[in-house]
Write a structure and sequence with these properties.
By secondary structure, this protein is an alpha+beta fold. It has helices at about 10-30, 50-65, 125-140, 245-255; strands at about 35-40, 40-45, 70, 90-100, 100-110, 115-125, 175, 185-190, 195-200, 205-210, 215-225, 225-230, 260-265, 270-280, 285-300. Helices cover about 25% and strands about 35% of the residues. Strand 10 (about 205-210) and strand 11 (about 215-225) form a beta hairpin.
């Protein structure tokens, strides 16, 4: 008989101790791993199906990480100051936006002992490329041994303000003023994602060239100090390039015209305001629901 082999009594005493040590080691490991509050990505001019798929995909890549403890806050609103929520070490957020050459995915990790802000972005040819290639983007963001360029300016996420129809824009930014003359805005402007160019003309007319290639006529007026820009004429199915063709044709028949409301910067070079549009849910052939939506946008004089 092997005298060194523990007996049944010894095993009964060792096993509970081993379990306790395992539990304690897990607790200590969890305490040493930094936590990150993960918020949903903000979507700009991107269809709901793509937005949901990319959000779920990015979250699954983050959850794969073993160097962070994940706090799922995707159903919560991102703090207005983009601060790190109490009880966590970092905050994660980002945007998905339409670009002339594809879809831009921008991810931000902020916080830590030095309160650093790490930002990484890439423009993908289409949503399938995001699904296939974005895992490395997430890994590089969270791997702090990977050196990333410093953000060019303050990092922010454009929120979607809820402004009722007919309301004037809130004048909370002291750098924005009312528009007094339509003719003073005549010239070429660069628009938000999804718009290649805007031409504002004297006499309250304009033209917008969308990324899909279609041009739309615009009516330009001043109302209560706000610049109001409305689409003239019938909608074109190519305005809805994120929808299947049958659904886009239906949307062109029933969707309200696009409308923007702006204030202008004091140097008269930037229009900042909201764009009224719609969010359409569909089954690939028919529209299921259509809801009004507003997005904060800016136009810059070229």
């Amino acid at each position: 008989m092997d005298r060194n082999r523990p007996g049944s009594g010894q095993l009964q005493r060792i096993l509970p101790l081993a379990c306790i040590l395992l539990v304690l080691s897990g607790v200590l490991y969890g305490q040493n791993v930094p936590s990150v509050a993960v918020f949903s990505l903000d979507s700009r001019e991107i269809g709901e199906n793509i937005t949901v798929s990319v959000n779920d995909l990015v979250f699954s890549f983050i959850r794969e990480l073993r160097t962070y403890r994940i706090v799922d806050m995707r159903t919560d609103s991102l703090p207005l100051d983009l601060g790190v929520p109490d009880g966590t070490d970092y905050v994660f957020f980002g945007t998905i936006s339409s670009q002339p050459d594809g879809i831009k995915l921008e991810l931000v990790l902020k916080g830590g002992p030095l309160n650093v802000t790490r930002l990484i972005s890439r423009v993908y040819e289409n949503s399938n490329r995001i699904l296939l290639e974005s895992r490395m983007l997430v890994r590089d963001l969270f791997d702090q041994s990977v050196r990333l360029p410093d953000p060019d300016g303050p990092v922010h996420v454009q929120s979607t303000p809820e402004v009722e129809t007919g309301d004037t824009l809130p004048r909370t930014d002291q750098n924005l003023v009312s528009v007094t003359s339509v003719d003073s805005l005549a010239g070429s402007w660069e628009g938000e994602p999804g718009i290649e160019k805007i031409m504002l003309l004297r006499g309250g007319r304009g033209v917008a060239v969308l990324s899909s290639g279609v041009s739309i006529s615009l009516e330009v007026i001043v109302s209560n100090g706000d610049l109001v820009v409305r689409q003239k004429g019938n909608a074109n199915p190519r305005q809805f390039d994120d929808l299947p063709d049958p659904v886009a044709r239906q949307a062109a028949n029933i969707a309200p015209p696009l409308e923007w409301r702006f204030l202008i910067s004091r140097d008269q070079q930037t229009l900042l305001g909201t764009k009224k549009t719609v969010v359409i849910k569909n089954d690939g052939k028919n529209i299921l629901t259509m809801e009004n939506a507003e997005h904060e946008v800016s136009w810059i004089r070229k």
